Fold this sequence. Notes:
The protein is α+β, with helices and mostly antiparallel strands. The protein folds into two domains: 35-118, CATH 2.40.50.140; 140-365, no CATH class.
Amino acid sequence: MKKFASPVFFVLMIAGIVGLLKYENVGPDPYSGMHELRATVISVDNAALVEMGTARIGGQHITAILLEGEAKGQTVVGANQLTGQPEMDEIFHPGDTILMAVRVKDGKAVEARAVNQYRQGWELALFGLFVIILLVYARLTGLKALFSFITSFYILWKFFIPGLLSGGSPILLTVITLSLLTVVIITSVAGFSRVTVVAIMGTLCGLFLALILTLYFGEKLKMAGMTAPFATMLVFSGHYTLDLLDIFYASVILGASGAAMDIAMDVAASMNEVLDKKPDITRNELISSGFNVGRMVTGTMTTTLLLAYSGGYLTMFMLFVTKGTSFTRMLNFKLVAAEIFRTLVGSVGLVMVAPITAILAGFILCGYKEIKRPGD
């Protein structure tokens, strides 16, 4: 398989990684007019904090020293308002490094409130560990994978999500975004070759079929976009006109896209390897080999989807067991039905990617020579 290895490409790749990783929190938030700054907690006042079992309501008064920004070194006092939602609320203690929203006027902090624990440093450390392991093990391929990883995040954050928020068609945006991501990711990792073309075409065909199934069975199962996390909060934040059902459909296809690319690339690369080792293989034999590889890959990948989606709702399943919920009621429960729908549609799409890629590879990799049978 011929790979694209121009030095210019790798220079641009490294420059892209550096550019996408470089981020500065400059200027105030455009909505609140407040700066988000790191601060160290000096003391806390819990007089207004009320504990109700595992939930807490009321609030804390936080005294902290700012660690950055125009008001660096100044001491501020801010509130930490609690809502009684343990998954959202945070309790701060002296010595914690936190993120504070601070209004600065003439170089002085005039208003502040606590936001979250500051986790960005350790997140970057974990990301750095991931990068080191990836580059040590995969080397040049790891660098390409890192580029596709960061570029994919950038496309989702700067194009896909803003497009959804502006009222664009979620289905159309999903098609455009996944087409772009598929080309960027597969080309970045595999270079420019016939194998790349096969993998891209196989992925997009499989995802297109998954999209058709999503729209059809989504209507039959009476799915609702409000099953997605934070959907209610999004609506009441002012986005009343968003089509949350189509956004839910978009999330189903987007969630299966990575595994689809993986399967398409595995099948295409394996078939190309078979063709390199046995140049006289017939098209039918090559396609049959692709089918065999696809069966092995999809067998584990569909289970991977099931475990990935189920893990996000582990506590919900534990609650069902605790309450002795019947299996029938559980299957018809709104959130469970949504996850079953997501898992099965994604799995069907993955299963379809393998044979489609094998057939495409049989014709593209073998060219247009006549199909010959052994003994002809």
